[in-house]
Design a protein that fits this description.
514 residues; alpha/beta; Rossmann fold; GMP Synthetase, Chain A, domain 3; 15 helices; 18 strands; 33% helix; globular
């Protein structure tokens, strides 16, 4: 593997993604991880990420000098490069000309890092500090107009540093450079594939769980479905899945559960797939009555779900573990587990279990990105309609019905959403976008339907493009498709007389409205 040490860069997780796309396995550790913990993983290479700090400031993140004496190739990116310079007698200072955005790099020396890359190419810069002088064997191998030390190397020790960001799409030859570092400098031979990841995951789960029983909250979404299928491969009948129907889901949820169970069952002949369906819709609706604040909705839904799920879990004799379909973005947006990067939000899947449950946590997908989870599901032969399904929030339609939750308002949102899903599939657009859904707004507008004036709720259409949900842009849809969706909603969903289209990106907006 290649170990990435996180110094708080917004791009740290992207480094891991880009390496994995090249079939190079990478793990992220905090910059201050114990030395024996880093070396114990026997990495072929180490990447020092960028970060917002300055090497001169008191308390700025550092690494142990012993790490550089271990004979492992190192690539420092932005702050990581500045740290290498600072630790080896060079000088780092505020750049005379700060660079943000595209820059033209000129390669000055032949080096394996730039093998197959033109002498001049565009890169993405984002830095305020920069190297002013080098020491201890480092030499310049590339420069830009604003950064005379754009890339440096100590070939003898296989230490490299680049001031730009090879992990972002804006750096033209970033993929070739990343692969050069891994294959030509780190001599990385193994190829990380989903087939291999599947085998390793099954082994890890068997080691973690042993003969213990695991209970899994199955929602029918991609994450919980893949987690359940993976666990079923590993432990068979010792997996017990519970689907809590909170009444806040989409049309056809129960039918999709049955299809999923049949598909997963077929993956392990002779083993029984244990699935229990629990109808708790009336309980959730009663608890949510009169609640409009989105955070209160989330807390009520989370607390009620745990109460229902806890009751079902206790009914399973000998259960020791709770499985969750937590993904990497859930972790990194919720708690700063890897480095000093900022906490963005709290997530309903992250943060621990109620003490009364007394179950140990199993998170088979915790360090996989969404696209990797889908690939893993395809490796296991799960149905494409499940793997390709758009993300659906844990609180369900409760955060897509803005304002108070009532059964009639839920019915409106559910019917409108079903029309959106149907039209996107009919038009061949479903797989082209990250997410498409309807939101019921807490406002009414005047309309004319037939010969009568109406005063009815408004539905907003939200459609975004994304890779992992961490950033997103609104999708420029064909007008004919927008027209068809609007016409069907206002014609078929009783109680709606207006449809609007959301043209906001993330940031500044979030994907969901609540």
């Amino acid at each position: 593997m290649i170990v990435i040490l996180d110094f708080g860069s917004q791009y740290t997780q992207l480094i891991a993604r880009r390496l994995r796309e090249l079939e190079i396995y990478a793990e992220i550790l905090p910059f201050n991880a114990p030395l024996d913990g880093i070396l114990g993983k026997k990495p072929h290479g180490i990447i020092l990420s960028g970060g917002p700090a300055s090497v001169h400031k008191a308390g700025s993140p550092k690494i142990s000098p012993e790490l550089l004496e271990a004979g492992i190739p190192v690539l420092g990116i932005c702050y990581g490069m500045q740290l290498l310079v600072h630790m080896h007698g060079g000088r780092v200072a505020p750049a005379k000309r700060r660079e943000y955005g595209h820059a033209e790099v000129q390669v000055t020396t032949d080096d394996p890092l730039f093998d197959g890359i033109p002498k001049s190419w565009k890169v993405w810069m984002s830095h305020g500090d920069g190297a002013e002088s080098l020491g201890n064997g480092f030499k310049v191998i590339a420069k830009t107009d604003g950064a005379p030390f754009a890339a440096i190397a100590d070939a003898e020790h296989r230490w490299y540093g680049v001031q730009f960001h090879p992990e972002v799409a804006h750096t033209d030859k970033g993929a070739r450079m990343r692969e050069n570092f891994a294959r030509k400098i780190c001599l990385f031979k193994e190829r990380w594939t989903m087939s291999g990841e599947l085998d390793q995951s099954v082994r890890r789960l068997r080691e973690q769980v042993g003969d213990g029983k695991v209970v899994c909250a199955l929602s029918g979404g991609v994450d919980s479905s893949v987690a359940a299928a993976l666990l079923f491969r590993a432990i068979g009948r010792n997996l017990h899945c519970v689907f809590v129907d909170h009444g806040l889901g989409r049309e056809g949820d129960v039918e999709r559960m049955a299809a999923l169970a049949k598909s997963v069952q077929a993956q392990v002949p002779g083993a029984k797939f244990n699935l229990k369906l629990v109808d708790a819709s009336k309980l959730f609706l009663r608890k949510l009555a009169g609640v409009s604040d989105p955070e209160r909705k989330r807390k009520i839904i989370g607390k009620t779900f745990i109460e229902v799920f806890d009751k079902e879990a206790k009914a399973i004799r000998g259960v020791e573990f709770l499985a969750q379909g937590t993904l990497y973005p859930d972790v990194i947006e919720s708690v700063s587990v890897h480095g000093p990067s900022a906490v963005i939000k709290s997530h309903h899947n992250v943060g621990g279990l109620p003490k009364r449950m007394k179950l140990r946590l199993v998170e088979p997908l915790r360090f996989l990105f969404k696209d990797e989870v889908r690939r893993l599901g395809r490796e296991m032969g799960l149905p494409e309609p499940i793997l390709g399904a758009h993300p659906f929030p844990g609180p369900g339609l409760a955060i897509r019905v803005l304002g108070a939750i009532t059964q009639p308002r839920l019915d409106i949102a559910r019917k409108a959403d079903a029309i959106v899903q149907d039209e996107f599939r009919r038009a061949g657009w479903y797989d082209k976008v990250w997410q498409a859904f309807a939101v019921l707004l807490p406002v009414k507008s005047v309309g004319v339907m037939g010969d009568e004036r109406t005063h009815q709720p408004v539905v907003a259409l939200r459609v975004v493009e994304s890779v992992d949900g961490m950033t997103a842009d609104w999708t420029r849809l064909p007008y004919d498709l927008v027209h068809k969706i609007s016409s069907r909603i206002t014609s078929e969903v009783r109680g709606v007389n207006r449809v609007v289209f959301d043209v906001s990106s993330k940031p500044p907006s979030t994907i969901e409205w609540e």
